[in-house]
Amino acid sequence: MQLLILLLASVLFTSPSLAREDNRVTFDKTVHDFGDFQIDDGPRSYTFTMTNNGDSPVVIQTVISSCGCTVPEWTKEPILPGGKGSITVTYSNDQGPYPFDKMLSVYVTGSAKPYVLRVRGVVHQKKFTLEDTHPIVMGPLRLRKRELELGQIRQGTVKEDSVEIINTGEYPVFLKFECSHPNLTVKAKPSRLNGGEKGVLVYTIDTGKKEEWGNVLYTAHLIINDRKDPMHVLTVKGSVKLNTSGMSRAEKANAPIPQMDRSAFEFADTKTGIEIVASFHLSNKGKTPLIIYKTDTSHPGIRVKTAREIAPGAEVPVEITIPASETGSPGEVIFTISFTTNAPSRPTVNLLVYGNLNP
Questions:
Q1: Does the residue 10 lie in any domain?
Q2: How far apart are the C-alpha atoms of 267 and 264, rounded to whole Å?
Q3: Is residue 7 domain-resident?
Q4: DSSP state at residue 347
């Protein structure tokens, strides 16, 4: 049951997307990774550079840190069109040995929403080897991980992040990527890494290129010195949701409102290898049709049968079948089903099917 509570928290509470849709001001980077360092190495500082792309001066009104351990200082004078300002952030490094990821909300005149910057890194009690901190090996290169996450992305927006890469070899390497989908771009900065040099892989999902909904999984092949190794593959995951930023009050007031008769179905104790069927009902309490853009499931064999468009005031059955192939292991099991919808109040509807399987 504790497992169920944890999973409920993870599917019902999701972090908001931090993507911006305007380029009135831009930053040289929005994420800085300090990498690995020790707790006795002292504070770490980095300066972000901001460019005013507009046709009138802007002022950085304030910068709010998510933690008192991260202190910002910024340009106080007006920044003229085409001019640059700076935000210097210092991480105190007095919080103990742990990974950190701190946000800075930058409020600029003329923008109602803040621009979000991040600093992150990993503090260690003692020195770790490169093999410990960067366990993924691709030729002479080492990375922290090969499975990259971007979290929630609003439809029509762009979101990016980066991961550190190190050339542990003796000679320079030239890097480029082949991506499996037009929405994904991966670039090495710099594209040439000398022996012993560090760089970053910047991975970007642009949902404006091709419409996608729900959970997406793209791959990118790393090509080193024009040689493609089938084992040098990165995966980039994201979850594309409805973008409500351009909706008017009237559109939101007339929008569909999904409502389930229940969010979880507990099946009776069942023997392994037996098919399980769970039934729900989905209603549209709003004033316009409810559309299910995509259905995602935790297990590939799960079958979901329901209408894809529900009229205002209508109710439709939702039948979920867990095939025998997915019930082969005894113990407590949890299956999740997620609907990505056009409802601004509830763009994701999560369902759980859980219970005990006996040998």
A1: no
A2: 10
A3: no
A4: S
